Amino acid sequence: MFDLFKKLDISWPKKLDPSIDLHQFTRTVRIIPLPHAATNALYHFYLGQYPLEILCYEPEPLELLKLQIEGKRILTFNPHFEDWPYQKYGERDPLSFWLHDLIHADHFFSDPQNRQGQIGFYRLIHEILSHKILDTILLNNEFNKSFSYLMSDMNAHPLHLIKTLRAYLKVHSELDSEYLWEAIIALPSMKNHPKIQIALKQVNKELFTHNDAVILTNYFNRSFDLDHHHLLFS
Fold it and tell me: What is the pLDDT of residues 176-225, one digit of tens each?
């Protein structure tokens, strides 16, 4: 690291041991303009511990959903640096978009149990789409926008994700929200799991208990066998 700083003509911090290695450096030095989550993700990506798929384009929400189900996140990187001053991803410049991708990667990978729970939720989303339960409400642009964000770019605890899904249905389709929720509860993966179905019925209601939260968390954290995984993408 000391030699690298010298090559780049960057001042070496006075109190830092010149023999420090990369691992010690990233745990000791904080680069103030970079969020910790982004730095952490970049470091673990460098070590091969965060499986990031490098794409030279911004993927569609469904493509990102499938990558997350495979246990991956993305880093959107255009190798043609001469385009960077003029390129935009929505309203973001390339640097802020890299940081955005890295922060989401850290939210996805940093807690292995929470990561498994997120994957379980995203598999449920894929099953919902496969059974076309939301086809009509997805014609609503506002719901489509919110749902796309939920399935591709909201890396959070699975309980927060399922509560958000039900809230979106209520906000954008109050008349049909109960009918749509019942259709989700009746999906094939829910059959033979009455406790899970009961817990889902209580989501965002006063009757929702700590026990319901534990049941749903365990449900999303469960391991899927390979046959079920293949069925999702058949």
Answer: 999 999 999 999 999 889 999 999 999 999 999 999 999 999 999 984 44
- Please state, in angstroms and rounded to a whole number, the distance separating the CA atoms of residues 98 and 3: 26
Collapsing DSSP states into helix, strand and coil, what is residue 30? coil
Alpha helices in the chain (DSSP H): 2-7, 22-28, 36-46, 61-69, 94-109, 112-130, 141-153, 158-172, 177-185, 194-201, 210-221, 226-232
DSSP 143: H
Residue 17 has pLDDT above 60, yes or no: yes
Please, which residues have CB within 8 angstroms of residue 25's CB and are 6 or more apart in sequence?
Answer: 1, 16
What does the buried/exposed string (b/e) look like for 5-42 if buried means 16 or more CB atoms within 10 Å of the residue's CB? eeeeeeeeeeeeeeebeeeebbeeeeeeeeeebbbbbb
pTM: 0.80
Q: What tokens does 219 get? A: 């449900």
8 band by pLDDT with thresholds 50, 70 and 90: confident
Q: Please state the domain extents for the chain.
A: 31-109, 112-232
In sequence order, which residues have a C-beta less than 8 Å from that of residue 172 and are 6 or more positions away? 137, 140, 142, 143, 146
Cα R_g (the chain), whole angstroms: 21
The phi and psi torsions of 50 (rounded to 5 degrees) equal -110, 110
- Other C-beta atoms closer than 10 Å to the C-beta of 105 total 25
Please report the pLDDT score of residue 91 as a whole number.
82
